[in-house]
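As a warm-up, study this chain.
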Amino acid sequence: MKYIIENDYLKAEISELGATLVKLIEKESGTDLVLGFDSDEDYIRYGGANIGATIGRNCNRIGNARFTLNGKEYRLSVNDNMNQLHGGGMNGFAFKMWNLEKKKEDELVLSYLSKD
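Now compare it with the structure written out below.
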């Protein structure tokens, strides 16, 4: 499901999949200011869910898809050669269904519970 919020100048379309900003339309010109796909299925099919999405648990790359914290090594899923990029591909926040709650015409609250 997609939600639309707007004010006098901008109209934003946000998807529950990845809390993704799908479109951001400048109303006067009608110009879409962001890159995106037309459907959630296309984000999954083309692996582009990080485009406009809320990524996590990490952003950027974690080298060799592992890190050490307090003396303990943690291994992560690999999705970028031998690294983990933007939370691990299909395991990352960009591929989770978020809760969206429209508060007003120009206000949307997005939430996702990430269990450890």
